[in-house]
Design a protein that fits this description.
Structural class: alpha/beta
Number of strands: 11
Oligomer: single chain
Radius of gyration: 26 Å
Strand content: 5-15%
Shape: globular
Low-confidence stretches: 1-13, 578-604
Mean pLDDT: 91
Bound molecules: inosine
Length: about 600
């Protein structure tokens, strides 16, 4: 009895001699043949992965670094991602600690791991899917707003009840005029839509003055921790909150002094995280006011000019050394009337592109895909746009969002077909792409890249954890992908940069490893929209990759140098440690916390 019992125990099977029962030994030749065949099959399948050739081309140092990181990952799965070692989370009523737990629950713990320190340093190449309004921490935005003359706040109702505080539409606006009313926005006396100076309103906030105000406004402008966890309410509910944050932020960040500081801070935070380029999407539905002007600009030439100036000035500054730059993907809203898509979207886009061709990289439609117009509805408009661009002699390629949904065969899911047929160069999200074998083959053939945003997909309730995200299925089938952060200041990453998304992928998907992460970062450079290119030149550039001779190839070579230096750093820093026996000490944590996300400087 005792023997049998032991033979079941993990790690003790080796003591058991099964020969008596005729059980073959693992070392028996035919078992060995089976095991070799098994390894060969796994290897055969891995050859289909989109990161296979990157893995094959690793230098010996890079291979060593990848192995070190794999060991650290395994060690941290055993020692950090377990309730047994540290059950504070369970005590707090937040449940178990385990590898791949929900992002919001894992966030602060992940920021204290060795893996985090490593991923922070990874050269991440380019950020290819990100929405402008959500690119800078809210602390920075509101500190800047509070220190900018003339910023006012107003609300559609008096903010004197919990429900008004939670839901009443709130806006910010610049005005020179002396306020007409001294009735507090927080009292029932407040007359709806009256502008109140921001600093007065913040200081008068009934629940904790200015710091209470900041907590409240940050909650209004982001998905809170508890909202992010309430997956049973579904995507439509979270999108209501998500959309409302853009309305508030859009009213504050497009006043010139704030806008300029915002652009610069976006670039600074990205570079600080190892991101050297961004193709950033902005929805052109905001009003831009120049410094000291109450009247919004007509058209968007002025805001694009300021954007370009700030990017260039950052690049030229000492802190911007190494930053390659930024371009905008023009986005229109997919729920507009068809006529409006042309009038306010496409025509303005063409005008701005004509004035600043180097700053507009492409065109897209945004907003909740399930509740907006499918691409199929807009085919006449999109083809008209194509034709107008040819007539004007300008290149505004499509970079469509598609398949950011749970559906299987519904109209949203079918956006993937139209994105492909309309010649998109990349696909934003492509969450439902794994259900489309034919499209997957075509996408690979046409060298279309998927901009995947795993944390965004989790927070917007398409998947409840990194473990059930479909991206590994695409990578395994050879689809080229880049990881992106989508809306970091709103969705909970809190700070710009891509470390959270990269970390989650590294921890969550064993098949990926540091090698896979490197391949994803390299892809981002390979598919970035650095400059205007015809479709043929674009495809050639992507195909030639670092063997080409344009900007793309030279940046891919630069990236490779950064990658090699990064791998050397890993080997120097962690190579000497025997895996499995290094317990993080308090001193490690202190050092780590200091090196963590660099706090945003106080805006000037
Ligand atoms: O992940 C996304 N999918 C689709 N639309 C989005 C996403 N993130 C932001 N927006 C939309 O983009 C505009 C701001 O640039 C907002 O309208 C927002 O709803």
């Amino acid at each position: 009895m005792a023997d049998l019992y032991e033979s079941d125990g993990v790690g003790q099977a080796g003591h058991w001699d099964g020969a008596a029962d005729g059980i073959p030994n693992t070392s028996d030749p035919f078992i060995q043949t089976y095991l070799h065949g098994r390894d060969a099959l796994i290897f055969q399948e891995r050859k289909l992965r989109s990161d296979h050739s990157f893995r094959q081309s690793l230098s010996p140092i890079a291979a060593e670094a990848c192995e070190i990181v794999a060991n650290i990952r395994d060690e941290e799965q055993r020692t950090i991602w377990t309730s047994e070692v540290e059950d504070r989370l369970a005590e707090d009523g937040e449940g178990n600690t385990y590898p791949g737990m929900m992002f919001t629950l894992a966030k602060s713990r992940m920021e204290r791991t060795k893996l985090w320190r490593i991923v922070r340093r990874l050269p991440k190449g380019a950020l290819l899917h990100a929405h402008f309004d959500a690119m800078v921490d809210l602390d920075f935005v509101f500190a800047k707003a509070l220190s900018t003359d003339g910023i006012h706040i107003c609300s559609q109702e008096a903010l004197c009840t919990p429900s008004a505080l939670e839901k009443s539409p709130v806006l910010f606006q610049y005005t020179r005029s002396i306020p007409q009313s001294n009735r507090s926005i927080w009292s029932s006396e407040y007359r709806p839509s009256t502008l109140i100076p921001l600093s007065t309103a913040a200081d008068d906030f009934p629940n904790g003055g200015r710091s209470g105000f900041l907590s409240w406004i940050k909650e209004r402008c982001s998905i809170t921790a508890s909202e992010s966890l309430n997956h049973h309410h579904g995507p439509n509910a979270i999108w209501q909150k998500f959309k409302s944050t853009f309305a508030i932020l859009g009213s504050i960040i497009f006043y010139e002094p704030i806008f300029r500081a915002f652009v610069r801070e976006m670039c600074r935070q990205l570079l600080d995280d190892g991101v050297r380029w961004v193709d950033v999407r902005a929805a052109f539905i905001f009003q831009y006011r120049r410094e000291g002007s109450e009247i919004p600009e007509e058209g968007y030439e002025e805001v694009i000019r300021a954007f370009g100036e700030e990017v260039e000035s950052f690049k030229a500054s000492p802190e911007g050394k190494g930053f390659w730059g930024a371009r905008m993907i023009w986005t229109s809203l997919r729920n507009l009337e068809r006529r409006e898509v042309i009038k306010t979207g496409m025509k303005q886009c063409i005008a701005v592109k004509t004035a600043y061709p180097h700053l507009i990289a492409g065109f897209d439609l945004v907003g909740q895909e399930d509740l907006g117009r499918p691409l199929k509805d807009l085919i006449p408009e999109l083809l008209w746009f194509r034709k107008r661009c040819v007539e004007e002699g300008i290149e505004i390629p499509f970079f469509f969002h598609a398949g950011e949904c749970l559906g299987d065969g519904d109209k949203t899911d079918q956006n993937l077909f139209d994105a492909l047929l309309l010649g998109t160069r990349r696909i934003g999200h492509g969450f439902s792409l794994y259900k489309h074998p034919l499209l997957i083959d075509m996408i690979k053939d046409k060298r279309i890249l998927v901009e995947s945003c795993p944390i965004s997909n989790e927070i917007l309730r398409l998947t409840s954890s990194i473990m059930s995200h479909p991206l590994p299925a695409l990578l395994a089938r050879g689809v080229p992908v880049a990881l992106c952060n989508d809306d970091p200041s709103i969705l909970g990453q809190g700070t710009n940069g891509m470390t959270h998304d990269f970390w989650q992928a590294l921890q969550g998907w064993k098949n990926l490893g540091l090698e896979g992460l490197g391949a994803l970062a390299e892809n981002s450079v390979r598919w970035a929209a650095f400059e205007d290119q015809s479709s043929q030149d674009w495809i050639k550039g992507v195909r030639d990759a670092s063997f080409g001779n344009g900007v793309r190839a030279s940046r891919m070579k630069e990236w490779r140098i950064d990658w090699d230096a990064f791998c050397e750093w890993i080997v120097a820093e962690y190579g000497g440690q025997a895996s499995g026996d290094h317990q993080p000490t308090e001193a490690d944590d202190v050092a780590f916390n200091m090196a963590r996300v660099v706090p945003a400087p106080t805006p000037k």
